[in-house]
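testing teh design pipeline on a random one, pls ignore if ur not involved
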């Protein structure tokens, strides 16, 4: 039997439709109105986000898979964020919406949560969590019709790395905060993930191949991605106060729970790696990577008793002073 990579779970992940819908209009939205589909704004390829995001891009399964995998750690971070009843929260870049009810749990019974995402497909998926206290909006984070000084807390995970100017993005977010309001920026993998505890060299060349693939795909220089690791500096450059950082380790060992196995097999091995890495690896390294990623192979990584996975997740918070920035 010839080993192959698992097929990508989200075949539409990189699809860009050629017929963009018409413009998206702003307006007051009720809890009932959020069940309606919002038209996506027209776009050109040059106006897409730093990593190619447009209203028509869809990687819903990838987002849902990550949230299911990292749910224990994300929920613990939300629980420790100092939220309370009556607060109004914005999930900026809410993706498929799994964090919306987690955030609402911290501000019940009188609080509320608004989620916004550029992708129409992501916002549509997030609407399954809509309720009287959860609203979902499809739109551009930096141009949405959100009332200034109307939120107590902004939760923004794995999103600012998609912005061409993260500092200006955070400055825009800060206008939405009430006095003493706070922003929390979360980002995965400031340190390289550990996949192959038994073969650090294969792990290193694979991580390097992934980085080079994405730089080539989006015509980026490595320096263009500096802000991904610099979110402490981003918050300070945006004049936030009391900036603090906390990094947690997401750690899994064999035998794996179903959510972790699905995330690693479909999202990492199939979507992020896969055949796209072949031009960036030697023949021998690519063949070995295929073997350890193939469920039918005896050395399939996720079935090894020595499998040990590590991924960092960093949350950086900053606050407005009591009179606003």
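output:
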């Amino acid at each position: 039997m010839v080993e192959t990579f698992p097929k990508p779970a989200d075949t539409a992940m990189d699809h860009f439709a050629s017929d963009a819908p018409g413009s998206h209009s702003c307006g007051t939205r009720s809890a009932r109105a959020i069940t309606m589909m919002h038209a996506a704004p027209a776009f050109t390829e040059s106006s897409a986000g730093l990593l190619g995001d447009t209203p028509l891009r869809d990687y819903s399964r990838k987002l849902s898979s990550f949230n299911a995998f990292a749910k224990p750690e994300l929920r613990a971070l939300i629980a420790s964020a100092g939220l309370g009843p009556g607060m109004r929260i914005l999930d900026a870049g809410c993706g498929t919406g799994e964090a919306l009810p987690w955030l609402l749990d911290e501000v019940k019974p009188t609080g509320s949560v608004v989620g916004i995402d550029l992708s129409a497909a992501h916002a549509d998926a997030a609407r399954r969590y809509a309720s009287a206290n959860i609203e979902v909006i499809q739109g551009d984070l930096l141009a949405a019709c959100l009332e200034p000084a109307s939120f107590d807390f902004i939760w923004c995970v794995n999103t600012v790395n998609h912005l061409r100017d993260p500092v200006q993005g955070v400055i825009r977010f800060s206008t939405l905060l009430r006095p003493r309001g706070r922003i929390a920026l979360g980002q995965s993998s400031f340190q390289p993930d550990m996949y192959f505890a038994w073969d650090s060299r294969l792990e290193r060349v694979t991580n390097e191949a992934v980085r080079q693939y994405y730089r080539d795909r989006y015509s980026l220089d490595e320096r263009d991605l500096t802000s991904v690791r610099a979110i402490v500096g981003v918050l300070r450059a945006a004049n936030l106060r009391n900036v603090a950082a906390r990094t947690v380790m997401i750690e899994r060992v064999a035998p794996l729970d179903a959510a972790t196995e699905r995330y690693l097999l479909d999202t990492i091995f199939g979507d992020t790696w896969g055949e796209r890495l072949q031009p960036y690896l030697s023949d021998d390294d690519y063949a070995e990577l295929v073997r350890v990623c193939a469920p039918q192979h005896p050395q399939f990584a996720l079935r090894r008793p020595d499998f040990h996975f590590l991924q960092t997740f960093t949350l950086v918070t900053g606050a407005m002073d009591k009179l606003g920035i």
